[in-house]
Amino acid sequence: MAQVLVVDDSSTVRNEVCDFLKANGLTVSAAVDGRDGLDKLKADPGIKLVVSDVNMPNMDGLTMAEKIRSEQRNASVNIIMLTTENSPTMKERGKAAGVKGWIVKPFNGPAVVGSLKKLVG
Amino acid sequence: MDMNSDKLIVSKVLILDDAVGHFDGLKAFCGDAGLLGIRPHGDAGSVMSILRSNVDLGGIMLYENYGGPAGEGLGLAREIHALRPELPIFLRRDATASVAGLTERDAAMFRCAYTLQDLQHLRASLDASIFSRVYPNDLVRGIAEMTRASLESLFHGCDVDMETPYLVKDRIIHGEVFTMIAIESNWCRGYMMLQASESALLRLLGEDCEEREPMGFRELNNVLGEATNLIWGSFKNRYVGTTDTGLHGQTQVPIIINHHRNYISFGSDDPQLCFKYTLRPQGRGDVAVPVYQRFVFNLSWSPEAFHENPSVEALVESGELELF
């Protein structure tokens, strides 16, 4: 069982974020795109927080967020986007999809770890 | 690089002019024109060696008698043009600023002919062929800033230096590995690429991961892909309007190519749809040339929405389409 699901098509980012969260006491699993993220979330009811990129092959992060929110059993799952995207349009789309927070890459673990831990609950 | 200078972009030109005292004059002219003049050390063979190497060039300034008696330079021009036809060649002549007297085929190799007495003619031709596109200084400066920041965030412990940006006319790929990503807005459409040597980058990354497994080429591809993604995102956030229908509305992921490994990644592990065709000249049973076709729907794939448009013939017959 993992507390956090990290979704990013870049293994560089996946490894960096997962390693950091593990080093800070969280249990973590990873997915390579939105479609894989949905599968991993469905298979692990322990996940309380999804940290996801936006631009990914097969299924982008916002589409994944919309699909997560569309299912009642995911109501307690928080979603944070970790992305190079910074436009108000994208953020609005994220809000509408039920995204809880937005982090612009590159990832700065120490700056956000406290907030992420709170979202895990 | 002096980011405050008026001229942020230069271009390298190969100067093939061995007439005594002319090189320095031409080099000074190049300085005024925003060009970096370089010249080979050695004979014509070294010229071809330079052209085969990874030297980004904007063009070549060639003296018609370079390397020997009258007309020697023309033979070299033919070799250069055959090897790198995309490079504009500017021909210096002794007597006349025209290609008069050359065969039509030879004349077509040169962007212009000039004499030392009429360098303004050369300047105009250089501006038209090398500096034909104006890149705003703020854009050049901004790209440099965001790229440096992105590389520094991925290559920990590295200083990122940069030479003066330059324009090229050639189509060289540096090294074996490169990434490509589409850039689209209401003011530009195209691609950004990062190109590098696999072995040099692997060595560099190996020094940064002493406690981990040694990096392989796939990990290297990922690092370069993420660098591409970071720069692309910064570019979009800074230069693409929020109302643009291009970048902000579409998902993009870097395409990663490694020549050395015959490797190309579109970011997805899904199988690609492939076709192989073979071209066989009629009456030549010994010749068979394969052509491979691949479809990679990596960004979106919804086969449930697949449909085929009505044929043009049917539309014409039904009177719904008027062809002009």
Task: Please describe what this structure looks like.
The complex is a heterodimer of chains A (121) and B (324). Chain A is of the alpha/beta class. Chain A has one domain: Response regulator (Rossmann fold, 3-Layer(aba) Sandwich), CATH 3.40.50. Chain A has five helices and five strands. Chain A has helices spanning 11-23, 34-43, 61-69, 88-96, 109-120; strands at 4-7, 28-31, 49-52, 78-83, 101-104. Chain A has a five-stranded parallel β-sheet, with helices on both faces. In chain A, α3 (61-69) links the parallel β3 (49-52) and β4 (78-83). In chain A, α2 (34-43) runs parallel beside α3. The longest helix of chain A has 13 residues, at 11-23. Chain A is globular. The mean pLDDT of chain A is 94. Chain B is an alpha/beta fold. Chain B folds into two domains: 10-129, Response regulator (Rossmann fold, 3-Layer(aba) Sandwich), CATH 3.40.50; 137-313, CheC-like (Chemotaxis protein chec, 3-Layer(aba) Sandwich), CATH 3.40.1550.10. Chain B is built from nine helices and eleven strands. Chain B has helices spanning 22-32, 44-52, 72-83, 104-107, 119-129, 137-154, 198-206, 217-239, 312-318; strands at residues 11-16, 35-38, 59-63, 89-92, 110-114, 177-184, 189-196, 255-258, 263-265, 273-279, 289-295. In chain B, the strands form three sheets. A five-stranded parallel β-sheet of chain B has the order 2-1-3-4-5, with helices on both faces. In chain B, α6 (137-154) packs antiparallel against α8 (217-239). The interface between A and B is medium-sized, with 24 and 30 residues.
Quick synopsis:
Chain A is of the alpha/beta class.
